[in-house]
Specification:
Elements (H helix, E strand, L loop, with lengths): L6 E12 L2 E13 L4 E5 L6 H8 L8 E10 L7 E2 L5 H7 L4 E4 L3 H4 L6 H13 L3 H14 L5 H5 L8 H13 L5 E5 L7 H18 L2 E6 L2 H7 L2 E6 L2 E7 H6 L4 H8 L35 E16 L4 E17 L3 E5 L6 H8 L7 E6 L2 E2 L5 H7 L3 E4 L3 H4 L6 H12 L4 H14 L16 H13 L5 E5 L7 H18 L2 E6 L2 H7 L2 E6 L2 E7 H6 L4 H9 L23 E3 L9 E3 L5 E3 L6
Parallel strand pairs: 3-8, 3-9, 6-7, 7-8, 13-18, 13-19, 16-17, 17-18
Antiparallel strand pairs: 1-2, 1-4, 4-5, 9-10, 11-12, 11-14, 12-21, 14-15, 19-20, 20-23, 22-23
Length: 606
């Protein structure tokens, strides 16, 4: 069996030289990948998963790494086995893309912003397959259809910034598959994607693996994805392999303490059945959180009625408005004090725009927004600034929302400096208190954002949002890019703060298991409208709208014996939200199912 392995990593050791001395990225790593097999490498940020995949591509040198020991054996399509550790860069160039394809985690950095999608998709085909331009374009179109990109002819002519995150990731996957590689390395390929797109992409990778015999090295921290995809699992912790086994062995009989902790931190869909209120997760080795449910109050803090936000599409010689993107259409809901309302849906459904419109970071076209009795839409700039004391936002990407040139203490103190709520010693003490609240050591006060991990950065973003004692926090995908154990800690932290401070959260997410864990009420969005809204138990345990049912069906379950088959995942492509000027959609009309559970009946477009 071992002689047939497409790739074999033997005793790999990778080091990085830093100002503080040598850092070991991977200490000792060995495993095989066989044809038609998916090996999932799991572990948290910093465990060495990505470093081992970049070593196999020999890209780790470009990131300042050195392969200090071990062998990377690869079996190409034709020719003898080669040890990639000794291959020169010319040989590697022929292998990269052609023999080993790679799907990177962050699609915006994997694509070149100055070239069209067509140019980037056809480049590898023309280089490795000697295709003419027209042959390469035809093949690129076919690849776009395979990864289910709607309107592929139009998309080919666009630039990466014109596509949503999910679309970009599909383009990256199409590029990786273009030359039909023998080994596909997928580094967190679905981390930032919606649950339906994730389900489709997982099914797509699985189908291609079965049809072409491609071997897949799948790097992820999402245990539900591992359960869905893996044949074998390699668990990494601090640069070492701590456990390896078949997917059933790892899930049903984990041996290493780290594997057990990793599995305990996974929020599982359906876990909250029978509970009315959200409650923190019980994590191994952390007994502080007795499962105390968070009830909140029945007093309305945020009232939204008929919120509509549209963005103009300009075109023609005079850059006139030729159409509108109907991002949010006739949105209405209430959020109670001390409770969490989650908005879920796919990329482009308008959930982030809804959050930003409520804080007036984006100007809505019409509608009423009331926070604590204040009419937010009617406020002028000065009054809006004052009202912002009550409302804050935590963004998806903490690195982009923090200033790289300011110390963490200054970033957390900045809102207080702007609003002069605290000065001098009082401000310093409040910053220290906020660090304690989000469980960061005070030694971090003088650090900069690049010196922190993703989870620690997100804690800083939460501390900064809390600086002014807000009543409402809009959390826009605040935990989607975090490791499962870090995610569990940040969610527990947010719930603890909610219980202590009476915060209300508008929680925007596409992760259904997380939403089930934290929500009192859930609104499901599709094409700018809420198609179903109600108490969490009603929406999750008795979904009525076909779109909500499709979303639930797509969620991977962290149990390898309950895998989704491809025919279960038959999603209709989402229609375009762009309509010509003058198009006036009908109002949202709901059927009331009782107990606050409502389902859209009119103009649902589904």
């Amino acid at each position: 069996m071992l002689d047939h392995a497409i790739a074999r990593i033997e005793n790999l050791r990778v080091t990085f030289e830093t100002k503080g001395g040598t850092v070991v990225g991977v200490e000792d790593m060995s495993f095989d990948i066989n044809p038609g097999e998916t090996v999932c490498v799991v572990g948290e940020s910093g465990s060495g998963k990505s470093v081992s995949s970049l070593s196999l591509m020999r890209l780790v040198e470009y990131g300042g790494g050195t392969i200090a020991g071990g062998h990377l054996l690869f079996d190409p399509k034709d020719g003898d086995k080669i040890d990639l550790t000794h291959a020169d860069q010319d040989q590697m160039r022929a292998i990269r893309g052609n023999e080993i394809g790679m799907i990177f985690q962050e699609p915006m950095t994997a694509l070149n912003p100055v070239f069209t999608v067509e140019r980037q998709l056809t480049e590898g085909l023309r280089l490795h397959k000697d295709m003419t331009k027209s042959e390469a374009v035809a093949e690129a179109l076919d690849l776009m259809r395979q990864v289910r990109i709607p309107e592929p002819e139009r998309r080919l002519k666009q630039y990466p910034h014109e596509l949503s995150g999910g679309m970009r990731q599909r383009v990256v996957i199409a590029m990786a598959l273009a030359c039909k590689p023998r080994l596909l390395i997928a580094d967190e390929p679905t981390t930032a994607l919606d649950v339906t797109i994730q389900a489709e992409i997982l099914a797509l990778i699985d189908r291609l693996k079965r049809e072409t015999g491609t071997a897949v090295m799948f790097i992820t921290h999402d245990m539900a994805v591992v359960a869905q995809m893996a044949d074998r699992v390699v668990v990494m912790f601090r640069g070492n392999k701590v456990e390896e086994g078949t997917v059933e062995e790892i899930f049903e009989n984990p041996q290493h303490a780290y594997t057990k902790a990793l599995l305990a931190a996974v929020p599982k869909l359906g876990e909250m059945r029978g509970t009315a209120c959200p409650e923190p997760m019980r994590l191994l080795g952390d007994d502080r959180f007795a499962a105390k449910p968070i009830h909140g109050s029945n007093e309305v803090l945020l009232k939204v009625r008929g919120l509509t936000t549209r963005f103009p599409v300009k075109g023609g010689f005079f850059r006139r408005t030729i159409a509108n993107v109907h991002a949010v259409e006739d949105l209405s809901f209430d959020l109670n004090r001390g409770q969490t309302l989650s908005l879920v849906g796919e990329s482009g459904c308008g959930k982030s725009t809804a959050g930003r419109s409520i804080l007036r970071l984006v100007e809505p076209l019409s509608g009423e927004i009331e926070i604590d009795g204040k009419d937010i839409v009617a406020l002028n700039a000065g009054d809006l600034r004052k009202a912002r004391l009550d409302m804050q936002m935590v963004f998806q990407d903490p690195f982009a929302s923090l200033n790289p040139q300011m110390t963490l203490a200054d970033q957390v103190a900045e809102p207080m400096r702007n609003y002069t709520t605290h000065t001098g010693r009082a401000r310093q003490e409040r910053v220290e208190m906020l660090f304690d609240r989000v469980e960061l050591p005070r030694s971090f006060l003088r650090r900069y954002p690049h010196e922190l991990s993703g989870g620690q950065r997100q804690r800083i973003a939460i501390a900064r949002a809390l600086a002014l004692n807000p009543k409402l926090i809009v959390a826009d995908e605040a935990v989607s890019a975090l490791d499962v154990s870090v995610q569990a800690q940040v969610l527990n932290l947010m719930m603890e703060l909610q219980a202590d401070l009476g915060l209300s959260y508008l929680f925007i997410s596409h992760d259904m298991a997380v939403v089930e864990r934290v929500s009192h009420h859930v609104g499901v969005m599709y094409l700018g409208r809420i198609v179903e809204i109600g108490p969490r138990a009603a929406v999750f345990e008795n979904p009525q709208h076909p779109y909500t049912q499709a979303l639930m069906k797509a969620v991977p379950i962290a149990d390898p014996r309950r895998r989704k088959s491809e025919h279960e995942l038959n999603f209709k492509p989402i229609p375009s939200p762009i309509h010509p000027v003058g198009h006036e959609p009908g109002p949202s009309i709901y059927a009331d199912l009782g107990g606050g559970h409502k389902v859209l009946t009119s103009d649902s477009g589904y």
